[in-house]
Amino acid sequence: MNWTFRTAGPDDWTAIAALLTRVDLPLDGAREHLDGFLLAFGGATLAGVAGLERYGATGLLRSVAVAERGTGLGKELVRRLLDRASADGLTSVVLLTTTAADYFPRFGFHRIARKEAPSAVQESIEFKSACPDSAIVMELPLKS
């Protein structure tokens, strides 16, 4: 499949929100971090999205969603954001998930206790209210 990728802008919010809602991911805090979102398009149609929020030297991976599963697009979005995080000098990336804990180890993520997440990330909307306390927390240390 041939996708095109670009960073999100304010005009993309409606399409992003529709896709996130369709796959039952929270919208809280996403709009405020649009500059960290990577979009994938199949033609003119939004095919996928993933966001990376920055908290000091740690990134928070969020809102990984694709319109059609099984295409490899989710994997490509995550890889591109992890490459960006590494290039930007981040030392780790953290995520919260209620449904995809078996998906992220392929990228090197491992489970950690919620209280082990960097304190700056714990202040994010994702940690404070968007994701339930039962969400699994995972971390990927990045090579510097």
Q: Given the structure, what is the number of helices?
A: 4
Strand order of the largest sheet: 1-2-3-4-5-7-6
Mean pLDDT: 90
Indicate the structural class. alpha+beta
Order of helices and strands: EHEEEHEEHHE
Which fold does the CATH topology refer to? Aminopeptidase
CATH class: Alpha Beta
Please identify, by name, the CATH architecture: 3-Layer(aba) Sandwich
Please compute the radius of gyration using only Cα atoms.
Answer: 14 Å
What's the shape?
Answer: globular
Helix content range of the residues, please?
10-25%
In brief:
The protein has 144 residues and is of the alpha+beta class. The protein contains 4 helices and 7 strands; from the N terminus they run βαβββαββααβ. The model has no long low-confidence stretch (mean pLDDT 90).
Note the main attributes of this structure:
4 helices, seven-stranded mixed beta sheet, 24% helix, single chain, 144 residues, alpha+beta, Aminopeptidase, 31% strand
Outline the structure in words.
The relative contact order is 0.17. The chain has one domain (4-141): Gcn5-related N-acetyltransferase (GNAT) (Aminopeptidase). The chain is of the alpha+beta class and 144 residues long. 24% of the residues lie in helices and 31% in strands. A 7-stranded mixed β-sheet has the order 1-2-3-4-5-7-6, sandwiched between helices. Strand 4 (58-66), helix 2 (73-87) and strand 5 (92-97) form a beta-alpha-beta unit. It has helices at 13-22, 73-87, 119-122, 125-130; strands at residues 4-7, 37-42, 45-55, 58-66, 92-97, 110-112, 136-141. The chain contains 4 helices and 7 strands. The termini are far apart.
